[in-house]
């Protein structure tokens, strides 16, 4: 064995053994003495003797090279992660600053435009009502009507921009109070009814429940008006719009507005929920929207802890659904 006398084999096997001491049979006195000696010592002493005879200790050798390699790799990973996190945080701050600057610019410009726009709309209304004298030329009256309608459309665009800027900047404050959802729906329908009558589009609403809700009445009303206006805009003459407020299987509130309009292509359903995206590109409609109405509805629903769902089928119609949490129901 190469004169190796310090080899230690340490491990576990499937065999069990016990320690024992052997004495020749003819040495009876020695046997008796050893038995008396073994009987006089304690179990702890026996264990100590046994460990001294055959106990083996294995010394664990630490591979410090491996430890330093692991520490080096871990340090590199931590440094890379910290640098990436710093860059990401800086990018987020720059994006937030740019978005805030854009929202502030839009808000300021919208206020600047609204002042002269109100004057244009006011004077066109006055002239149509013959307050400064009769407008006898039919063509002039047609021009005035176009000016008034264009002014109203531009006013609606400005209002959408202002509302969206507030929401994106986190400045839309919910003024929460208890109000009746059915009455809120009735008021919203009344706002769009004149345009619906021009296109001979009936708007049906038969409430099943009387639901008192705790939230921002102006915000919910704004969302409903946006959905109803959109439904009237994309529904052809003699179509129909149906509204309902029901309770879901888990007790939440479901507000549904269904129209028989052109429908939205399936591949554009997600896009129309982004600001300035429109769902009817390439489709023949009388007036195009701003692409802000549906994103505002989505944000307002989420501010109330709810969600907005849009389903549609081309040449069949669209169903817009606002889900509101049951913990906002008040009896």
Q: Which secondary structure elements does this structure contain, and how are they paired or packed?
A:
Blueprint: H1 28-40, H2 43-54, H3 64-128, H4 138-168, E1 176-180, H5 181-198, E2 203-205, E3 212-216, H6 217-234, E4 241-247, E5 253-259, H7 293-303, E6 307-313, E7 317-324, E8 329-330
Helix pairs in contact: 3-4, 4-7, 5-6, 6-7
Describe this structure in words.
The chain is of the alpha+beta class and 331 residues long. The protein folds into 2 domains: 68-168, Orthogonal Bundle (Helix Hairpins), CATH 1.10.287; 176-330, Histidine kinase-like ATPase, C-terminal domain (Heat Shock Protein 90). Helix content is 51%, strand content 13%. The strands form 2 sheets. It has a 5-stranded mixed sheet. Strands 1-3-8 form a 3-stranded antiparallel sheet. A hairpin with a 3-residue loop joins β6 (307-313) and β7 (317-324). The protein is elongated, with a radius of gyration of 41 Å. The relative contact order is 0.08.
């Amino acid at each position: 064995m190469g004169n190796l006398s310090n080899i230690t084999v340490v491990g576990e096997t499937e065999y069990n053994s016990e320690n024992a001491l052997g004495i020749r049979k003819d040495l009876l006195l020695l046997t008796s003495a050893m038995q008396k000696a073994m009987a006089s010592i304690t179990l702890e002493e026996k264990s100590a003797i046994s460990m001294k005879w055959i106990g083996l200790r294995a010394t664990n050798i630490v591979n410090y090279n491996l430890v330093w390699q692991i520490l080096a790799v871990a340090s590199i990973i931590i440094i890379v992660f910290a640098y990436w996190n710093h860059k990401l945080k800086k990018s987020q701050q720059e994006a937030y600053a740019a978005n805030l600057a854009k929202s502030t610019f839009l808000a300021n410009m919208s206020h600047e435009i609204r002042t002269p726009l109100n004057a244009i709309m006011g004077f066109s209304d006055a002239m149509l009502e013959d307050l400064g004298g009769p407008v006898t030329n039919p063509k002039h009256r047609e021009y005035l009507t176009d000016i008034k309608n264009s002014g109203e459309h531009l006013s609606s665009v400005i209002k959408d921009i202002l509302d969206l800027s507030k929401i994106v900047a986190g400045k839309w404050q919910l003024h929460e109070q208890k109000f009746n959802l059915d009455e809120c729906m009735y008021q919203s329908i009344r706002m769009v009814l004149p345009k619906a009558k021009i296109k001979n589009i009936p708007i049906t609403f038969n409430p099943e429940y009387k639901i008192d809700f705790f939230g921002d009445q102006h915000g919910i009303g704004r969302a409903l008006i946006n959905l109803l206006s959109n439904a009237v805009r994309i529904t052809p003459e003699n179509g129909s719009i149906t509204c309902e407020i029901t309770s879901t299987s888990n007790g939440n509130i479901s507000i549904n507005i269904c129209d028989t309009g052109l429908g939205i292509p399936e591949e554009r359903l997600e896009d129309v929920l982004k600001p300035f995206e429109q769902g009817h590109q390439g489709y023949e409609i009388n007036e195009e929207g701003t692409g802000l109405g549906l994103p505002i509805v989505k944000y307002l629903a989420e501010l109330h802890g709810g969600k907005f769902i849009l389903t549609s089928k081309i040449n069949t119609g669209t169903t817009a659904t606002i889900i509101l949490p049951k913990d906002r129901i008040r009896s």
